[in-house]
Design brief:
It contains seven helices and eleven strands. With about 210 residues, it is of the alpha/beta class. Helix 1 crosses helix 6.
Length: about 210
């Protein structure tokens, strides 16, 4: 499979690219900065410099031509303001989905987060903008005629992957290593599961079995 990953220099994306390459797939990481190319290529993936905040749908669709799946793993990241939460976490997700439709790529997996459908009660403007952007990106994807999956991990850690998770429509809040998130995405991309919103936290079920049980 050829899989194009937006946000290709993110922590989950780099792990995913390595997992996909080791499984014999071709991963293509979309990145914003040329200096990120060596990190992406070190995983065994291809790197394409393409800033989704400034690119148009034709440019993105060109990269997606011939792909078997697209993964949205991008995010504005810590330190960004409310405006970039919208342009990246929502706007870039919508752009990638538009491009996937134009390029005929039906398989689309979007990384979101547990709790994005619950408006925050705190007065943190940036956090509220992040939640709103993620929720809007989910709503946009659900309305499309794509074989979409939305994956909502719990609190992310950099602990070593355990290979065991809880993966279901609703899991409750807990943490999960980024390495296990990447491994679950690899498994989901090759499974015949579509049009579902799934939550993911650490657990006791081997990843292969967790995906099969869906």
């Amino acid at each position: 499979m050829r899989i194009v990953i937006a946000g290709g220099h993110g922590q989950i994306a780099l792990l995913l690219e390595r997992d996909l390459a080791e499984a014999g797939h071709t991963a293509v990481g979309l990145i914003r900065k040329p200096e990120q190319v060596p990190d992406v290529e070190a995983t065994g993936a291809e790197a394409v410099v393409l800033d989704l905040e400034s690119a148009d749908v034709d440019a993105v669709a060109k990269v997606l031509q011939g792909a078997d799946a697209a993964v949205f793993a991008a995010g504005a990241g810590p330190g960004s303001g409310a405006a970039r939460k919208d342009t990246v976490d929502r706007g870039s997700a919508v752009l990638l989905a538009d491009a996937a439709e134009r390029a005929g790529v039906r398989r689309f997996l979007q990384i979101s987060g547990i709790g994005v459908d619950t408006p925050p009660t705190s007065g943190d403007e940036v956090w509220a903008a992040y939640i709103a952007a993620k929720a809007a990106a989910e709503d946009d994807l659900r309305a499309r005629d794509l074989d979409w999956l939305i994956l909502r991990p719990g609190g992310l850690t950099n602990d070593p992957g355990t290979g065991r998770v809880t993966l279901a429509d609703h899991t409750g809040r807990a943490t999960v290593p980024r390495a296990d998130v990447a491994a679950v995405i690899t498994a989901l991309l090759t499974a015949g599961i579509a049009r579902r919103t799934l939550e993911l936290v650490g657990g006791d079920t081997p990843i292969g079995q967790a995906v099969q049980d869906l």
